[in-house]
Amino acid sequence: MIRFENVTKRYRGTKRPALSEVDFNVDAGEFVFLVGASGSGKSTCLRLILREDVPSAGRVAVLGRDLRSLANRKVPYFRRHIGSVFQDFRLLPSKTVAQNVAFSLQVIGSSRGFIQQAVPEALALVGLDGKAKRMPHELSGGEQQRVAIARAIVNRPKVLLADEPTGNLDPATSVGIMQLLTRINAGGTTVVMATHEAAFVDQMQRRVIELKGGEMVRDEVGGGYGDTSSIPRLTPEAVPGAAAAAALTAVQEIQRETITGVVPTPPAEQPATARPAAAQDAVEPSAQGAPWPPAVATPPEERATAAGPRTTPIVIPEVEVAELGMADRLGLSRDDDEEVGPTS
Ligand code: ADP
Fold first, then answer.
1. Of 309, 297, 324, 262, the residue nearest 138 (C-alpha)
2. Closest ligand 1 atom to 46 CA
3. 7, 10, 43, 44: which to mutate for ligand 1, most atoms within 8 A of CB?
4. Nearest protein CA to atom 7 of ligand 1, as residue
5. Does residue 197 sit in the same domain as residue 114?
6. Where is this region: Disordered (predicted)?
């Protein structure tokens, strides 16, 4: 379904290639984690799969299509078969939840009748029925990511690409998002997820493709995250001054949570704010088992079902997706024509 053949990608003006002779094959229905330190080439892989960029050497084939020979005018049609979700949700801020999800159907010319049926079904699948008329800023971070996932799957894609989808979310909310991605995959959608979340990768025991400096250093079925030494650690420093004392207290609190497994009650529900990239670079929360800074409050429903620290086992629900009556519409059922080219 996704084939990388000795793919090298060099960005203009850079000395080192972002990807060097990367070679792998993802079959239909797989759930694959792409792991590696920041800058190792994960996003570049996803961009090549989406045909947002092309390799400098080698070949990328997706859904039976050699993307090198895919004409630019056919790219939008090809992308209809691939859903994408990102760390920063990328919702349209001036549109309601339903309008955000409908948008991806409107741009491809779906009928009004289909949109009216498909959008509520997608929102129900991600657990957001009842929130169709809300604006994105009225939702928690986890809810915003659910909207983004609904938007990504409403068009029944064969492949779902997720680039750090839990990167802006607190631990309990992240578990809910991982459960949702697992359900979508259980319905037959191939999922490729780039992540730094070592705990999730370790718990889920899915296929792991690890990149290091653009080279593929591991392709392991049922693997764990592996080497976490590249993930920055948060170490308290005893520096004089009130601000430093406050920071130290906060760090000690995180360490206490990690040791005891106790997660403090989050502050009152508040709209989500994405963590600035610089903050994420400075401190990687997953390494310590708690968000820093705590960017979002956990929605009550997610607290009830998934409360716990980063090490909370991910409960993979026994969901019969077909029973939801929407599996086929959302591309969540297995079928035999996955190799049919997207433009055929
Ligand atoms: P990751 O997703 O693992 O953080 P990326 O794929 O974003 O890694 O980046 C891989 C390497 O390519 C990095 O060294 C990064 O600086 C470089 N890179 C990514 N995008 C561009 C670009 N548009 N132009 C130049 N260099 C880039």
1. 297
2. 6
3. 44
4. 43
5. yes
6. 262-320
Residues paired with 61 in a beta bridge: 3, 66
**Cα separation, 291 vs 252, whole angstroms:** 13
Which H helix or E strand runs over 25? strand 19-26
Q: How many domains does the chain have?
A: 2
Q: Are residues 87 and 178 in the same domain?
A: yes
Ligand 1: residue whose CA is nearest its atom 12: 18
How far does residue 44's CA lie from ligand 1's centre (Å)? 6
Round to whole Å and give the CA distance between 305 and 249. 29
Residue-level pLDDT, tens digit, the chain, 344 residues: 999 999 999 999 999 999 999 999 999 999 999 999 999 999 999 999 999 999 999 999 999 999 999 999 999 999 999 999 999 999 999 999 999 999 989 988 899 999 999 999 999 999 999 999 999 999 999 999 999 999 999 998 999 999 999 999 999 999 999 999 999 999 999 999 999 888 889 888 999 999 999 999 999 887 778 776 665 666 655 555 555 555 555 555 555 555 555 544 444 444 444 444 333 333 333 333 333 333 333 344 443 333 334 445 555 444 444 433 443 444 444 443 433 344 33
Residue ranges of alpha helices (H) inside 42-170 are 42-49, 75-79, 97-106, 112-125, 141-153
Residues with CB under 6 A from ligand 1: 11, 14, 18, 36, 38-44
Q: What is the DSSP letter of 296?
A: S
